Amino acid sequence: MTVLLSIQQIAKRRFDAPDRYLFEQVTAEVTGGQRIAVLGVSGQGKSTLLRILARLDVPDEGKLLLQGTDSATWKPEEWRSRVSYVAQQAIMLPGSVEDNLRTVSLLHGRPFDRPLAEQCMAALGLGDMDWKKPAAELSGGEKQRTALIRSLLLRPQALLLDEVTASLDPGSKLAVERELNAWARREGTACLWITHDLEQARQVSDTVWFMSGGRLLEQADTQSFFHDPQTEAARQFLPEPSAGRGRH
Ligand SMILES: Nc1ncnc2c1ncn2[C@@H]1O[C@H](COP(=O)(O)OP(=O)(O)OP(=O)(O)O)[C@@H](O)[C@H]1O
Fold first, then answer.
1. What is the pLDDT of residues 148-181, one digit of tens each?
2. Sorted alphabetically, which keywords does the UniProt record give (predicted)?
3. 202 occurs within a structural domain
4. What is the extent of the structural domain holding 57?
5. Which one of 130, 190, 208, 244 counts the least CB within 10 Å of its CB?
6. For ligand 1, atom 31, which residue shows the shortest CA distance?
7. ipTM of the complex in this document
8. Would residue 148 count as lying in a domain?
9. How many domains does the chain have?
10. Per the domain annotation, does 102 fall within a domain?
């Protein structure tokens, strides 16, 4: 698999104590279609790292490359149309659902793919939605899925998903997991999921990135991470081992 994103020695300083790092020495690669769960206790900087990868925030140290080209060479909007961040708190743009679905295409100068929008809405349980409805009137879960579809319509190479199913009912959550797994397989879209739901992490990832102590402490195959975590911090983070999970 070709390397899509290369993350080299990225560090971010704490804004409340600039002599200390929120995280440092983060080095990793993301390949096309790779499915990664980004795990760790609250406040490790998982969201901050993904926002840096989407160029919505800047690192204090280190380099980011997309398809081998340094981030400084990419226009930010071109980068963001390829590496799309979906926030936990979906922000709807003014206007209707349809305006929301169309706006990102307009912003990035792409034709609006209505059949794809219809297909995504149906797949995520929004097939009966009135597209003329003001987006501000949607429920939290409807906003979250509409925001996700807005990003999917860009056909990004990487989707950075920040607790995107947090306000969804179990059925809708499953629909999102299935649809994004299908995108990763079909389109080769890399999916990075921040989640606190360990069952979800198992369903949606082949690789785990575990953040702890200001480092990207483990990068492991998902099965190996859950069955045989290599660090004490990861062992503490995971629930008590179930029968059969070997630990050193
Ligand atoms: N430079 C910084 N950039 C972002 N957050 C910072 C910074 N310095 C300190 N912080 C603090 O560190 C924490 C980082 O939050 P962030 O959302 O990135 O972590 P997280 O691991 O995603 O947490 P959660 O799992 O709760 O969403 C916040 O409490 C924030 O106030």
1. 999 999 999 999 999 999 989 999 999 999 999 9
2. ATP-binding, Nucleotide-binding
3. yes
4. 3-92+156-236
5. 244
6. 43
7. 0.96
8. no
9. 1
10. no
